[in-house]
Every structure is written in C-alpha cells, then in structure tokens.
Amino acid sequence: MKTAVVTDSTSYIPKHIRENLDIYMIPLNVIINGEPYKEEIDISAPDFYEEVRNGSELPTTSQPPIGEFEELYSQLAKEYDAIISIHLSSGISGTYQGAVAAAEMAENVKIYTYDSEISCMPQGFYVLEAAWMAQQGNGPEEILPRLDELKAAMKAYFMVDDLSHLQRGGRLSSAQAIIGGLLNIKPVLHFENKVIVPFEKIRTRKKALKRIQEMLGEDVDKGMRLKATIIHANRVQEAAEWKSELEALYPTVEFSISYFGPVIGTHLGEGAMGLGWTVK
After folding, report:
1. Considering the entire predicted model, what is its pTM?
2. Domain 155-279 in CATH 3.30.1180.10
3. pLDDT at 149 over 90
C-alpha cells in the first residue's frame, strides 16, 4: 500500500525535510493590515515578527478553505492508496474539522484524519514519524497505532512574554490575562483536552524555563528514551543557548530547535519559548 502524509503549516517542518519525506502541506493564513499571507509560503517567521513590530494593527489568522483540502486529496488519490492527514489541535482551530469534511467528500482514496491535539513541532513529530514509516512501506494500520504511542508520551510546555495575545485570540480568559499581567507572571502553559490552559504560575521568565526543563528531567530520570524540540518566537540566540544547556544536562535526549511561525506566533507573541518531547 502506498500512503501519503499530509499536514498543515503549523507543524513548521522545513521545506527541504518535507520534500525529502514526501510530506504534503496545507498552509494556514495570517492576515496583516488586511493582507492575507499563506504561512511558510508567502511569509517567513522572521519577516512576520518584523512586520508585527513595525505595524499598527495586530494580525489575525484563518484556517485553510475546505476546497484546498479537497484539491490536494483529489490529486493524491491519483497516486496513493491512502492518505494520513495530521493537523493542529481541533481545540484551537477548525483546520482539523476542515480536513474531516474534505475527507468525507473524497473519492477513490481512503483518508485517515488525525487530531494531534497539539501544534508546532510536537505536531511535527507525528508527521515525521508517519512519513518515515510510509516510506518504509507501512500503511495506516501500522502508522496510526504508532502515532497513538507518541501521543501517550507527548508533553509540551511553553511560556509567553505577553498574555494579551492569547486573551485577544480567545485562547485565554480575560481574567487570567489581567491577573497575570498585573503580577508580572510568566505562566507555564500546556495543552489539556485539546486547548491551551495554564499549568503553573511562575513569576519570572528564567524560573519558567527552568521549571520546564525540570519536567523534562523527570521523564529522563524514568529511563525514557526521548527526543525533544525547543520552540521559539524570534529568539534564535536564546534557543541555541538553551539547547546547549539542555544537552549538557540530558545527554541521552535528542534535541532540535524549531519555531513558532506566523499563525501560532500571532496568538503567543514574540518572545514565547517552549519545549516539547516524546519517546524516540
């Protein structure tokens, strides 16, 4: 069986890796000053943060039209027997529901939609695993159970510099944002039941990042073989320094660096940092 792997742009998998692994990507949109941009195609993450810093209006985001899913699935049906379509959490975007709706209308191919219940490179972990397995000749019956294994071990925590972005986008309540701002809290956030919620309230950025790395250490101490990704919102140097620190602390963990792109960056704001991990 020949299986295609589809994801959306919020997995933030570099283009050369997508091409090497035959991963197909549907972009979400970020709207800046009334102008729509397909992320990962029309605008890069560094350019996005530069635009926001210099712009007067805060950007907004939108999910892909169902027609884009339909068109891609139709094209892939000519070459593949099955499609696994992996998307960001259905609790923060309608993208997954769009994929489901398009899959129900598809003909001549079996489509398996998968809700990652997360986003960014932790979502990308599912995509990369599925694509690698598909290249080895595995079909959905082998790939989907493996994705569930990753999900059972998946953890991701992040902190933001400014809670107003999450509050404005409806991802955090007004009360939580106001209280956090008044107390200069840098809350550690995570996904729970597919939505973003506070995990712990911490007073400083340094302490928030230290708390996140301690939680990784707890899993390392359990003897788990892990791969982890550092995710940053236009903080390249800080991410590199944190990676070096983490590699020294946890030499058995395989680390990489990724980023919060335009769509997710719209809701988190510049300066956000995160760490996600799962089993190798």
Report:
1. 0.93
2. yes
3. yes
